[in-house]
Design brief:
18% strand; alpha/beta
Length: 190
């Protein structure tokens, strides 16, 4: 993947954080990073269509700049990005899953991926949300390779702790979803 395509893909993944279902966005990120753009594009476009997730004209044009997949024509275009479908808080209800294993795994690995700060927030779905309540991690990094950091951290989290909590790797660009999740408390600092 050339540099411009990588930037475009990264931008799209930032924009769709919190709008695509967690598993679909995970697949899109991992498949693009793993050199499987056709699979990533199919997952992205089929999910957008199946879940009836509208995209802006600018997002449409970004997708078109990296893909000639005809399924893009079936995706609904909207005037503006829908409001955030989740609320974030620093703590979870008493019956929430214990995040301590995931905290340790991600804290131990964050420096390897250029991490500066790792945060964790509890995510509550609002009307229109596609996923349930769960912990979400945000790692602020110095690197431009956010897809690589995401793939590495997500893989380590699964292999070591058998956890699939969403991990958002951010540098300068953040979606409203990522910005809201970034308000969670720090659990690791470089």
């Amino acid at each position: 993947m050339d540099v411009q395509t990588y930037r475009t893909v990264t931008d799209l993944c930032v924009r769709f954080a919190g709008r695509l279902p967690d598993d679909a966005l995970r697949s899109v990120r991992e498949d693009y990073f793993g050199g499987e753009p056709a699979l990533a594009e199919a997952t992205l476009l089929l999910t957008l269509g199946y879940e009836d997730i509208g995209i802006t004209r600018e997002e449409h044009d970004l997708i078109r700049s990296i893909s000639d997949d005809p399924d893009l024509a079936r995706v609904r275009i909207v005037d503006r990005v829908p409001p955030l479908a989740y609320r974030f808080s620093p703590s979870a209800p008493a019956d929430a899953p214990d995040p301590s294993r995931a905290d340790r795994v991600l804290a131990d690995e964050s420096a390897r991926y250029g991490g500066r700060v790792l945060r964790r927030a509890w995510r509550e779905p609002l009307v229109g949300a596609l996923d349930e309540a769960k912990w979400v991690y945000v790692l602020e990094v110095d690197t431009a390779d956010v897809l690589g950091a995401f793939a590495g951290l997500s893989a380590r989290l699964w292999v070591t702790a058998r956890e699939k909590w969403p991990v958002e790797v951010v540098n300068d660009a953040r979606s409203p979803y990522q910005a809201a999740a970034s308000l969670g408390p720090r659990i690791w600092v470089a």
